[in-house]
Amino acid sequence: MIDAVVIQPGLNTEEPSAAGISWAAVAAGAIVSCALTFVVLAFGVGLGLSVVSPWGGAGVSATTFKIGTGLFLVVIAMLSSSIGGYIAGRLRSRWIGVHGDEVYFRDTAHGFVAWALATVLGAVLLASPATTLLGGAATGSAQGAVSSARSGPMDGYVDTLLRSDPGAAQNSGQNAASESRGEIARLLTSSLSKGGDLKPADREYLSKVVAARSGLSQPDADKRVNEVVTQAKTDIDAARKAAAQLAFWLTASLLIGAFCASLAATEGGGLRDGTWRRKTAR
User: Fold this and answer.
1) Phi-psi category of residue 215: left, alpha or beta, with phi > 0 → left and psi -120 to 50 → alpha
2) Positions of the chain with pLDDT under 50
3) For 41-69, what is each residue's pLDDT tens digit?
4) pLDDT tens, 177-199?
5) How far apart are the first and last CA of the chain?
6) Beta strands in 154-274 (DSSP E)
7) Which residues contact 12 (CB under 8 A, 6 or more apart)?
8) Which of these, 79, 101, 208, 235, is most buried using a 10 Å CB contact count?
9) Other beta carbons less than 10 A from residue 90's beta carbon
């Protein structure tokens, strides 16, 4: 037997006409979050440049710099997302006749959507400037001078391979060495870029070229090739690990930013409706 549903007189069962989301408030919070991210990021880059030094024993270590950069990304996410979420919650329209739990959920959604919009805008608008600023802070002024010259990533290793005795520079075949640079760079790039190693035939050929261009004996040329290839693989592995660590820090900062934006939006919405003090007391 089905019980009949009795509607009490005076009970409002109609859905409120106001929209469940205020896009203007969400957009305002997202824009504020993006602006604060860029401002704090620029300030942090200035601090990073002040602690990085090209001189040995001066400035912070590479490990300290990496950890500091990761923590700074988390601080940026917490600050910008909290303020952006608060703006989104405080500026949204007031809902009349909506249950308190539903209001709390909508405020949380406002903060989360504002964070998501800010993240998308930041990826589109701030990716290039942020990459440039962080790259300048990480590499320092010396690396910036190298980057200004149109050199490939393997040119430094090629220079080391073809380095000859200054006293014998005239007899080392400088023109032939210049012609061999492109071939050696392509050989190293194709062999090492995918985490592989030089093939035995390529290594033997490279040793012969180094011996012919630099004036070294064949055993010395073999030793130089081994040292340079090992150094190149070490540098590539270090760059890979640094990129992985940065990706983990970015993921952590994004998740923390989403939480802070959602929480701040509930606080802003409670202050907007005048219910924040009652929530705190309860």
Assistant:
1) left
2) 1-13, 137-138, 140-150, 166-173
3) 888 877 766 666 555 555 566 677 778 88
4) 555 677 777 777 777 766 667 78
5) 41
6) none
7) 97
8) 79
9) 20
Q: CB neighbours (10 Å) of residue 189?
A: 15
- Interatomic CA distance for residues 21 and 82, integer angstroms: 19
Pair of tokens at residue 136: 């300048």
Q: Is 117 helix (H, G, I), strand (E, B) or coil?
A: helix
Length of the chain (residues) = 282
DSSP 79-106: HHHHHHHHHHHHHSPPPSS--HHHHHHH
Half-sphere exposure of 55 (CA within 13 A, CB side): 5
Could you give the CA distance from residue 249 to residue 260 in angstroms, rounded to a whole number? 16
- What's 172's DSSP letter? S
The two three-digit tokens of residue 248, written as one number: 């983990």
Predicted pLDDT at 2: 44
**Which amino acid appears at position 203 of this protein?**
R
Predicted TM-score of the model (pTM):
0.66
Place of tokens 């270090």: 238
The answer to whether 115 touches 31, Cβ cutoff 8 Å, is no
CA 205 to chain CA centroid, Å, is: 40
